[in-house]
Design brief:
The complex is a heterodimer of chains A (178) and B (104). Chain A has 178 residues and is mainly α. In chain A, 76% of the residues lie in helices and 0% in strands. Chain A is globular. Chain B is elongated. The chains are: A mainly alpha (178), B mainly alpha (104). Chains A and B meet through helix 1, helix 2, helix 3, helix 4 and helix 5 of A and helix 1, helix 2 and helix 3 of B.
């Protein structure tokens, strides 16, 4: 009896985390102030990490917190601090957000969502309820997927070089007269 | 701790909802920082679907694809934010509609 109650409580945790993730995402993408939006986005990522953990993917949950909510979001924080948008930037953003700009994107993404939900309706299934441990992930990663690791390292190297090139203070370039 | 038996379609519905939110944000916003954030949300939703599939079949492959998506997101954000800084320096605005000339 007690075990059943515990399972129901854990399922409630899933629904709460899902609701938090959705709400935080909607709030993040409708804010005018970039710093506030970033905080909401971090909350959303943490909620998704909880969902990962509940589904039995503790390694993915840890990576979601460490890399997504930690490293990538810190990059955003640094850039927002460097840009120093200020109060008038926020006001302009609020002006862009208002009114009729919502109609066409809203209709398009609602249509896509509807299609997705209709496609999902016909495949009832339940997650296995058994955790996939980090050990299994590591063994598979450096076994059959070792080529994917190499490709990811090349990708990260390309990202590093690109970011270094783009992030220099001034790109020296001959100005063209017109 | 073991996993939890959650109906698969609910997890996928969550992923779909997150993805639609990201898509809506991407089409709605004109500020390039918010567009990058929307891209992050969309990548994250796709990763959620992969991890859910891995949990359904009890295989590690879902989490490995999550790792790859993570590295793609990291590289994309690094390059994207470098572009943000250059656009701000050149055009003195973050409005994407101002930055439509391909020529430097």
């Amino acid at each position: 009896m007690r075990k059943r109650g515990g399972a129901i409580m854990m399922e409630m945790l899933f629904y709460i985390a899902a609701a938090v993730a959705l709400l935080a995402t909607v709030l993040a993408l409708s804010r005018a102030n970039a710093a506030h939006a970033l905080i909401y986005l971090i909350v959303s990522l943490l909620a998704v990490a909880v969902v990962f953990f509940l589904m039995g993917a503790p390694f993915a949950a840890a990576l979601e917190i460490v890399i997504y909510a930690g490293a990538i979001m810190v990059l955003f924080v640094f850039v927002i601090m460097m840009l120093n948008v200020g109060r008038e930037g926020t006001a302009r953003e609020r002006e862009w957000l208002g009114g009729r700009n919502w109609i066409a994107p809203g209709i398009l993404s609602a249509l896509l969502l509807l299609e997705l939900m209709l496609a999902l309706r016909h495949a009832p299934a339940v997650t296995s309820g058994v955790a996939v441990t980090p050990k299994e992930v590591g063994l598979t990663l450096f076994g059959p997927y070792v080529l994917a690791v190499e490709i990811a390292s090349m990708l990260l190297l390309a990202g590093l070089v690109g970011a270094y090139h783009l992030g220099r203070r001034f790109i020296v370039r001959r100005e063209r007269r017109r | 701790m073991g996993g939890l038996q959650i109906p698969m379609e609910q997890v996928l519905a969550l992923a779909g909802l997150l993805f639609s939110c990201g898509l809506l944000g991407l089409m709605l916003r004109r500020n390039i920082i918010f567009m990058l954030m929307s891209l992050e949300v969309m990548l994250n939703a796709a990763a959620l679907a992969f991890v859910a599939a891995g949990a359904k079949w009890q295989q590690a492959d879902g989490q490995i694809i999550f790792l790859l998506i993570l590295s793609v997101a990291a590289a994309e954000v690094a390059v994207g934010l470098g572009l943000v800084l250059q656009i701000q320096r050149r055009f003195k605005t973050l409005d994407m509609d101002q930055a439509r000339r391909l020529r430097g």
